[in-house]
Amino acid sequence: MRAVHRTRFLREARRAVDSTRPRLFLVPIMLAFAACHHVTPISGPQPEAVGQGRADSLIVVPDPKASYRRAGLLVSSGAVSFVGSIGFLAGAVPESTLVLIDLSLSDHALTFTREGEAYHAAYDVVLEFERAGAPIHRVMTHEQVRVGSFRETTRDEESVIFQQMAVLPPGDATIAVSIRDAGSTHAGVVRRAVTVPRFDEGTIATPIPALRARPRTSRERLPEIVVNPRATAVYGRDSVALFYVEGYGPSSLDASQTVQVRVAGDSGVLVYQDTVPWIETGNRLRSAILKVPLSRVGFGELSISVDAMHDRDVARPRPNRAPLLVSFGEGLPVSSFGEMVELLRFFASSDRLRALHELPPSDRAKGWTAFLEATDPVTSSPENEALRAYFARLADANVRFREDDRTPGWQTDRGMIFSAFGEPDNMIEPNGSDSADRSIVQVWEYRRYRTRFTFVDQGGSGHWHLTSHSEADYRALMLRLER
At 195, which helix (H) or strand (E)? Predict the structure, then answer.
């Protein structure tokens, strides 16, 4: 019987505070712990300015899950959405490998009930390992989440992290992961074929993206690590992306006291490299904490690999790569700098966006940080609430205002107004529409801007267009807010 610890941590700007609560688990080769981090959100006000006008080209809001799938992460299907990763470290002997299963989900995916002044939810996790169609291990665990306000229950970004560790023999296997919301019938599942590696002398583990890590002193000990399940860092908020890596045995590692780090961008192009010293922990084990500077690697879907510094004539296996996804904000899509500037067309003034677009690559980090500070309504918090609210509106507009298969919802006339100005204060459908052509009229009122926008659906086809007068009002309001 082994004591297992549940850890709840609050992360704000990548800082964590721990508290532990023991419980017992009857599988002797397992260690399980769930970690939940919560940041009290602040409702994002309307942007301080809006963008350049109507879209002239077809730009689709990127799907964040597409980046996770391309990066090889676990992406669920079903009503409970979660993303996760699988990491591997050496077990006590080469015939055993420590498998780290790390999952992240949002509070919004769970059903909360009120308990006094707080809110409570629960979920069940089932992990099943198979080899050649036969089960080799199964874990079931029941987890609890408590938050202090109703607002936190509606968060749709990563807010809960679950971690599970298992010891398995090396070889091919299949893992099935399911999460069921205890307050409903909703569930999410994912199934993945994996190869559990064997760590002999001279081997190096694939880097594990981490929020916090401490080198362990022997292969027999369990690692003290909080994994970053989505392998994501935020450009302009995080200065570095953290990775943990281990090397085993003296053989090829004796050639150098350092590990070489490489970060590749699109098409495998090298964007950053460095050497990091191994930390000698004894007992034929070395480890390293890698800190990749985001200002040096840029944006988008990257990958990181490590290798010991060898003599050039020494043959060695090709290093394994771990994903690194650099985004513009928690929960925002991973995309290139140019794509992001285009997506911001209804968020900031044309002058600000033009200045961003014209930045040389070497100045983008500084320019993006300045842009975040200039548009942040609450500078005391670690995130830009207005930017988060804007991207939430884009996603909402894509669902609510899609009119055909060719145009994203945010680029329709109603989606454009919604993305730029948010929910109208009042929506009016006046009587007396022309029954001859069956046109339908909607009027959106924005009291804070002292304006109204009128949309007409000619013939009831489901395609809404601004009237010419409202389109002129829209352009005038854009110009007024940009001054």
Answer: strand 187-196
pLDDT digits over 107-140, tens only? 889 999 999 989 999 999 999 999 998 999 999 9
Q: What is the pLDDT of residue 330?
A: 62
DSSP string, 397-415: HHHHS--SSSS-GGGSHHH
Q: Name the token pair of 83.
A: 């993303």
**DSSP H or E stretch at residue 210:** strand 208-214
Residue 63's pLDDT is: 65
User: Which three-class secondary structure state does DSSP give residue 231?
Assistant: coil
CA distance linking residue 47 with residue 349, whole number of Å: 10
266 burial level (CB within 10 Å; 0-12, 13-18, 19+): exposed
3-class DSSP state of 420: helix
CA angle 260, 265, 266 (to 5 degrees): 145
Q: Distance between CA 137 and CA 170 in Å, rounded?
A: 13
Backbone angles phi, psi at 366, to 5 degrees: -65, -40
pLDDT of residue 317: 53
More confident residue, 481 or 476: 476
β-strand partners of 280 = 286
In the predicted structure, residue 326 carries a pLDDT above the cut 60: yes
* Residue 433 clears pLDDT 70, i.e. is over it: no
Torsion of CA 300, 271, 294, 350, to 10 degrees: -50
State the residue for tokens 């529409």: 433
pLDDT in tens, 200-214: 988 999 999 999 999
The phi and psi torsions of 73 (rounded to 5 degrees) equal -80, 165
Mean pLDDT, the chain, as a whole number? 79
The dihedral of CA 43, 45, 46, 49: what is its sign?
negative
In whole angstroms, what is the distance from residue 158 CA to residue 30 CA?
Answer: 25
The vertex-371 CA angle with 366 and 297, nearest 5°, equals 40
**381 CB-side CA count, 13 A:** 16
Gap between the Cα atoms of 208 and 185, Å rounded:
33
User: By C-alpha distance, which of 100, 93, 90 is closest to 287?
Assistant: 90
Please write down the HEC assignment for all residues of 250-314.
CCHHHHCCEEEEEEECHHHCEEEEEEEECEEEECCEEEEEEEEEHHHHCCEEEEEEEEECCCCCC
